[in-house]
Specification:
Radius of gyration: 20 Å
Number of helices: 14
InterPro entries: Thiolase, Thiolase-like, Thiolase_C_2
GO molecular function: acyltransferase activity, transferring groups other than amino-acyl groups
Largest sheet: 9 strands, mixed
Protein name: Acetyl-CoA acetyltransferase
Number of strands: 11
Structural class: alpha/beta
Keywords: Transferase
Organism: Williamsia limnetica
Strand order of the largest sheet: 3-2-4-7-1-8-11-10-9
């Protein structure tokens, strides 16, 4: 039997999320930590483990922490989801009891890095957006990778641009009634999607997310301690990881996000099937990622993602409400903390809009990093449970 994790999320802090906020990434991390500590009823001395999503070795001094360990964790968009598993391991081995997992970035407030048409641009700048050696042949940025995945899905299953567009419309429907999202008060139609400009064929502007500034933090501790700290702990029922580099060796690149192992491990620990999941929060900075994950997790059959969304299954009254805060397309982009934070809110029954009644289980995914080739993402899955 797969061992249980026996950890819970006792506190969460989420700063305002937006563009050109003027705050630095470090300051956003401080704000998020303050909110998470207040939420859990804890103080800084209570934190004996620190996991930073990214790399900033001066955070501890600025944040005023004195933990037993401080890790920097970077596996792209899978990092926040994976940080919960790392925290669970540290707790299980006695390295810490109460761990803060913290993220904060100021993408739109920082000076631009990628300046290929000016003397300020360097090879190093461009390679930071390259995701492996294909940058030598002009593949720069994640949109080109997801565009290839979308094109392959179209070739295999007959998926259309309209199928992608319906994903964007559903997520905007969630976001347009959620204060603080990028899409608040701005509904879109399928026609709007089809008329938005092409970014990387076949992905249009409304198929794509854009980075936002913001901070997020969670406090991970044992089930028992979480129950003492808060009336609304969120149990981590299961977690798993996988890596899509396998598709490179199988010559199936862009056909799969390779979620199978992560899903099997997470659901096995939770002792649940995919049919037991009430709500899904998926890491999906592009519309095609929603369709691929709906299919690969088993919410619908391969190739049926487009019709599944068209039939309303991912909407608020559907069989699996998905990205209920607007996701990364229309909510905000805080890497893997976008789906994780919404999953926590749903399990607490505290979503400020689109709260799914009686939701007791939530699947959260994270995806990112690479194995040296475009599309070879890490993947991480959590199954969260409500304790309310």
């Amino acid at each position: 039997m797969t061992p249980q994790l026996n950890v819970a999320i006792a506190g969460m802090g989420l700063t305002d999320q937006g563009r050109h906020t003027g705050s630095s990434g470090r300051e956003l991390r401080r704000q998020a930590l303050d909110l998470a500590l207040a939420d859990a009823g804890l103080t800084r001395p209570d934190i004996d483990g620190y996991i930073l999503i990214g790399a900033s070795f001066e955070d501890l001094r600025y944040l005023g922490l004195s933990p037993a360990f401080a890790y920097s964790l970077m596996t792209g968009g899978a990092s926040p989801t994976a940080s919960v598993l790392v925290a669970a391991g540290a707790i299980a081995t006695g390295q810490a009891t109460t761990i803060a997992c913290v993220y904060g970035e100021a993408y739109s407030s920082a000076p631009p890095k990628l300046l290929p048409h000016t003397t300020g641009g360097t090879e190093r700048d461009i390679r930071s957006y390259s995701y492996g050696y294909p940058y030598l042949y002009g593949m720069v940025g994640p949109a080109s990778t997801y565009a290839l995945a979308a094109r392959r899905h179209m070739e295999l299953y007959g998926t259309t641009s309209e199928d992608l567009g319906r994903v964007a419309v559903v997520e905007r429907d969630y976001a347009c009634v959620r204060p603080g999202t990028q899409g608040y008060g701005q509904p879109i139609t399928l026609t709007d999607h089809q008329e938005s400009r092409m970014i990387v064929d076949p992905l249009r502007l409304l198929d794509c997310s854009r980075p936002t500034d913001g901070g997020a933090a969670i406090i991970v501790t044992s089930d028992e301690r979480a129950a003492d700290l808060t009336d609304h702990p969120v149990s981590v029922l299961g977690g798993g990881t996988s890596h899509a580099i396998e598709t490179w060796w199988k010559e199936t690149m862009f056909e799969s996000m390779n979620v199978d192992r992560a899903a099997r491990t997470a659901l096995g620990q939770a002792q649940l099937s995919i049919d037991d999941i009430d709500v899904a929060q998926l890491y999906a900075p592009f519309t095609i990622a929603v369709l691929m994950q709906l299919e690969e997790y088993g919410f619908c059959a391969p190739g049926e993602g487009g019709s599944f969304v068209a039939e309303g299954h991912t909407g608020p009254t559907g069989s699996i409400p998905t990205n209920t805060g607007g996701g990364q397309l229309s909510g905000f982009y805080a890497t893997g903390f976008t789906p994780l934070s919404e999953g926590i809110l749903q399990m607490r029954g505290q979503a400020p809009s689109s709260q799914i009644p009686d939701a007791r289980t939530c699947l959260v995914s994270g995806s990112g990093g690479n194995g040296g080739i475009q599309g070879s993402w890490s993947h991480a899955t959590l199954v969260l449970g409500a304790d309310r």
